[in-house]
Amino acid sequence: xxVTTQTPPGPTLFQxxxxxxxxxxxxxxxxxxxxxxxxxxxxLPRDGQDLVxxxxxxxxxxxxxxxxxxxxxxxxxxxxxxxxxxxxxxxxTAPFLPIVDPNKPIAPFTLPGVEKRxxxxxxxxxxxxxxxxxxxxxxxxxxxxxxxxxxxVAYVVGSFLGLVAGYLGGWWDQVISFxxxxxxxxxxxxxxxxxxxYLGPSGFNxxxxxxxxxxxxxxxxxxxxTLDTKTRDYIFAAQTRGEHPLxxxxxxxxxxxxxxxxxxxxxxxxxxxxxxTTLTFLGLGLQPPDPDWGLMIKEAAQVxxxxxxxxxxxxxxxSVSSLILGFNLMADGLRxxxxxx
Amino acid sequence: MTTAVPASPDDSxxxxxxxxxxxxxxxxNLSISYYTRxxxxxxxxxxxxxxxxxxxxxxVGESGCGKSTVALAIMNYMGQNGAIVGGEILFQxxxxxxxxxxxxxxxxxxxxxMVYQEPMASLNPSMKVGEQLIEVPIYHENASLEEATAxxxxxxxxxxxxxxxxxxxxxPHQISGGQQQRVVIAMALxxxxxxxxxxxxxxxxxxxxEAGIVDLIREIAQAYGTSMIYISHNLGLILETCDxxxxxxxxxxxxxGDIRTVFxxxxxxxTRGLFNSIPLPTxxxxxxxxxxxxxxxxxxxxxxRGCNFGPRCDYYDETRCNAGPIPMYDVKADTNQKVRCVRFxxxxxxAAVPKPDEREKVQPGDVVLRVDDMTKHYEIEGAGLLVxxxxxxxxxxxxLSFNAREAETVAxVGESGCGKSTFAKVLMGLETATAGNVQxxxxxxxDLPVETRDxxxxxxLQMVFQNPFDTLNPSHTVGSQIARVxxxxxxxxxxxxxDARVMDLxxxxxxxxxxxxxxxxxxxxxxxxxxxxxxxxxxDPNVVIADEPVSALDVSVQAAVTGxxxxxxxxxxxxxxxxxxxxxxxxxxADRIVVMYLGLIMEQGTTDDIFAPPYHPYTEALLSAxxxxxxxxxxxxxxxxxxxxxxxxxxxxxxxSTRCPYVMPGLCDVEMPPLKPFGARGHQILCHLDDAxxxxxxxxxxxxxxxxxxx
Lengths: 341, 711
Prior knowledge:
Strand order of the largest sheet of chain B: 6-7-8-3-9-10-12-11
Shape of chain A: globular
Number of helices of chain A: 13
Number of strands of chain B: 26
Distance between the termini of chain B: 9 Å
Largest sheet of chain B: 8 strands, mixed
Largest sheet of chain A: 2 strands, antiparallel
Radius of gyration of chain B: 27 Å
Structural class of chain B: alpha/beta
Oligomer: heterodimer
Shape of chain B: globular
Strand order of the largest sheet of chain A: 1-2
Distance between the termini of chain A: 39 Å
Structural class of chain A: mainly alpha
Number of helices of chain B: 22
Mean pLDDT of chain B: 82
Largest interface: A-B, 18 and 32 residues
């Protein structure tokens, strides 16, 4: 039978966008093209390469509107979201912006605001003569994509281990907790350097390294939440219904742990961004010549000893800070909102 | 019969002097609001109260009616977003709303003391009980350490705690819940307060322990002459402890008066509704069924115009009840009864009692569930620091045997630690039995964990849970959670048919169909519990275990949920295993009762057999412990001493021997008692007492004979 009687006035388009399903769709629409472009750009046809990013632009703008609207109660979260989405928007529109090729040497050591060889260097040029504005804008792509992907993978692994350890308990818990204690006892940087030295520097190996470093902490959070939730009657009801443990973990337990996980994820995105930038700075991360904030800092490190050229260091450093600040403010705002009511 | 019988000599003195003495506490037109983002929310409006020295007043009402807010306002402790917006609170003639923080701090804890619901939350877990107690005289009266210690120990003895010296040196977690609450009461009394506020002081405790605390509170009132305000949702407790009562509803006092006047001649439709919805001994499934109050408590910012109870009232008058704010009217000139109702003198109060249920009584069918000698032991490792200690056995269930028939309600009654939850777990297959048999139809369940049961067996046995806030997963919609059960048990597979069945079930539990799309947080406690019932009945079960399904709900909602459960049971001829600690609910709905204590069945039989002698001594105490909100019922008082022993370390012999008033040393505490059958209907008692002594017991609850019934 159909429920046709008196449907209340349908939700507006905007309210419909706020449903979790459309948010996931928008996120995918933004993220998949960007990841494709950054990670697998070399395999895409040369001419159509940039077109991949086209659907991501409206998706990013819509997501920003939805985020600002639903978090409007917390000014902190709105500022954070604005910072993050500024860089996201730059990432998806970079090929279409009226800026020069970030890898093209024009005039070395040009100071900010100076015009040389028919090109105005708003933020100056680096020691090879590449436009710093262009490099800073392009640089966010790699940091964002690799940083978010690495955090995401760490979360998938960490949450799953946490669910298993918390829900199944006993022997599973002992093994997983012991391994995570071992990993947690290494200083993070030592762990990164060990793994990347062994596997060789590349984006995918950064993901592995970040997973090893972050998953134990994530596992502990999820395990704690699971231990609390699994004593609830609805879990008991699912068990007495004969549900498979995997179903209970993913459908009944995981959604109830999402609040703290999201807040922690925002913070951890910041850590990961710092880690990736640091690794690139150390020469263990993403490889030249494509722009990347960590790489820019590394390249500028020698020259920027001179006060006159410190802008080469400041521009990428400020870019990194603004993104991390965005993530942290977002986390603060979300936590503040979850504490209210 | 208009004048109240004074409960104590102090009270009669107070009543005589009431004309000229200063009241201990007086609230005049008190209004309290909370400020939230949604704006000002009036929590309590126009509240009046006059508490004389030595008097005990009760405030009764359902959750959200503002009774705790009143208590917090008296302490002047409402947090940052609460404020007194009108009226005044006079403590011994001084207006508390104008006092400074420092003056208030002097009053709190010394002149006014408060006892809260959760004893563990009132005590500091990192300090010894003694240290917390001696702080009170030292801080408030600058007493010396020795004097304070001596006074603390005396006070602990006064609140009937055995071995005060040991308790002084113990941490709060090392003593039981009942003992903790006694410590909190002792702490409140140490400074010899003029006013004692008790906010649901026994709600977190077991019934037999509660009876002891209630006894203590009554004694204190007499011995110390302390004025008391007793806040509770339980009318029976108020009757046992208080002289006067204020009934609150949705932020307003709706009725006030002497306790007997209000209980016998209530004049507000809400008070009448409350009494109609609680299972008094006079209530009966067929001749005098419970009547729930329809509708729900309005949210504080959505209260109707005029009478707040209007939308739920059977006597609602469109023109008069919603005209404007209703004042408190005096019912009669010669009593102090007041009521907030414009129609109180027009309503035919004699006709306001429930009408009999004309439906035919359900006849039980064949035996569906057969429990035979079921035993469940847990092995735990002793707490050794480095090497694991000796293995210990917890006997959670010991040779349980009983049968349940089709369409029959079997109640399992017992306090915490009696093993009823373990029994439910074995039935549901989350644990397997150590020995014995459990047969559902032809299927042997005792050693069949839920993973190995087939779908039809699982769907035949379902459960309704206790805590409405825990029973539904907050992340999924109501509809999807019911649909999952339907699909899982293969009742329907087709999406449309599943949806149709979800709608049917929502109709059955009397919830609107659009609730299917809602999330649990948008539902009230009673509504969630209905969804829980719908979920349990989704797979057409033969046996439903209801684990205290109504104990967490408000009384008016309780009646609705029990009524619903019984209607569905009647229709489907389901066997209901009703687990509860509340004998009054059990008496109302069960056909047969199983009384458990520390893993053993102490007594079982039909409801009539259990409520009439011969009693097991434990049943006798349990019956006596249940507070009854009926002034005509006479109750014999049996108050147990001590606490329920730990299941890890039960007494040798009869588990009840440590608290039994009939204990025969040398026999009861050494040897397991025999099971004695009485009568032909399967009444069994596990006791050493001889038959003559058991049958010679007097009834605990004496119902009024029809002639002298109410009014």
